[in-house]
Amino acid sequence: MSRISIQDRADQMDQMQKWLKVYVGQPNIKGLEIGSHEGGSAYFLMNNILTHKTSTLICVDPWLRHPEAETVFRIKMEKFAGRVTGIRSNSFDWLIKQPISPTFDFIFIDGDHTASAILDDAILCLRLLQKTGILIFDDYLWQPKFKTTISPKIAIDAFLSCQNNLLVSFACRQAAVRFK
Hints:
Helix content is 35%, strand content 24%. The termini are far apart. The protein has one domain: Rossmann fold (3-Layer(aba) Sandwich). It is globular and about 40 Å long. It has a seven-stranded mixed β-sheet with strand order 3-2-1-4-5-7-6, with helices on both faces. The protein is α/β, with parallel strands linked by helices and 180 residues long. Strand 1 (30-34), helix 2 and strand 2 (56-61) form a beta-alpha-beta unit. The protein has helices at 6-20, 40-48, 67-77, 91-96, 115-126, 152-161, and strands spanning 30-34, 56-61, 84-88, 104-109, 129-137, 166-171, 174-179. Helix 5 (115-126) crosses helix 6.
């Protein structure tokens, strides 16, 4: 797996903050994060975007390959008790059970990087996004060394080619979409 530099990660967080700045300090904003690992992005979102005491974040991650990451995640999220919900689940299994309802103001997808999983996440998340919401894909340009089926770009491009009702922006190895 290729590694991302600290500066690249900082640039990505800066870009995410630009895309989501409209939500800073606003009450009752609901975010969804697919793939949380140790909670770095969730911690950033809670400290910089979901700053109002009534704003919440749901984080879905199976925590299978690195079970110690869940412990780190939960420790980081203690500061936000009652506002962050960590759900141990495969994203497909959790998303498919959700009622089709535009619930979330924004969704950040950074889970399983296989093209098929990202395509599933994109399709299932879009039905949960409010009409004024934003869907952000992380690692758009990430490429594995050997397996071409593990490429977020393949899935994101396929997803976008099937949609004619979305506006898309690309920056800092991420893609963001919103409804037209």
